[in-house]
Design a protein that fits this description.
Helices cover 97% and strands 0% of the residues. It has 269 residues and is an all-alpha fold. The longest helix has 127 residues, at 116-242. It is flat.
Amino acid sequence: KTNSNKAEQTDTHEETKHNVSSSSSILDDEFIKQQIHQIAQTFQSRFHQIQYKQQRDHSEQTRLLTDRIRLLDEELSRYKEAYQNQEQRFLRLDTVSSKRNEKLAIVHHARKSPLGCHRILTSWKKHAFLQCEKRSKSLKLLQERKHRRILCKMLLRWSKLAIQTRNSMIHKEKLKVILKEVISRYEMELQRLQIELGEARAEINRGVAERTRLEENAKRLLLRGMMAMNVDALKLFSERDSGGDGGGGEKGEYGGNEWSDGFVNEENY
């Protein structure tokens, strides 16, 4: 039994080792595949980046080269134009020099001839006369232009002065109209204020008259009351002296009625 158990344990142990080794080999293969896949992806992304960078650099270089070529073409065209202008200038100078040489040859030939000096003098006189005429004409033109310029300046000044005077007259007329309107408005306002002042004075006079009338009425009323009180007091004293009660009551009523009648009459008044 022990031997059989040991054999079974060894068999199970070997099976587990085999399974572990097989599983580890499978895991190692998967890990290696993943690593290879990641490395491939990194290489591919790096390749794309390098390719994009190369394309960008190439496009930038081509743009710079095209700009440089365009600038060089423009500079070459400018140089060509300058060269053509210089050639034309040289041609003009050649023509002028050839004409001068021809004139000098004619003058030299005229000097050698017996009538050369006379011709030279006559030509010089003609040239001098023509120059004098041109100068006189130019002076006349300058004087005329100067006269015209002076006239134009005078006319401009006169027009400015006329415009200023016209504007000042218009402004003065406007000011006169505005002044008349203001004066008329203030005169109307003054008349209205004078009328209001007269009405206020009349109202004040009426108030003063009313106050004096009321004062007189109050004075009369006060005097009547005092007289009535004095009469009542005298009647009371006389009643005490006489000792009668009937007549005193009637007199007191008469005095009170007189006071009341006087007060009523003043209120009605």
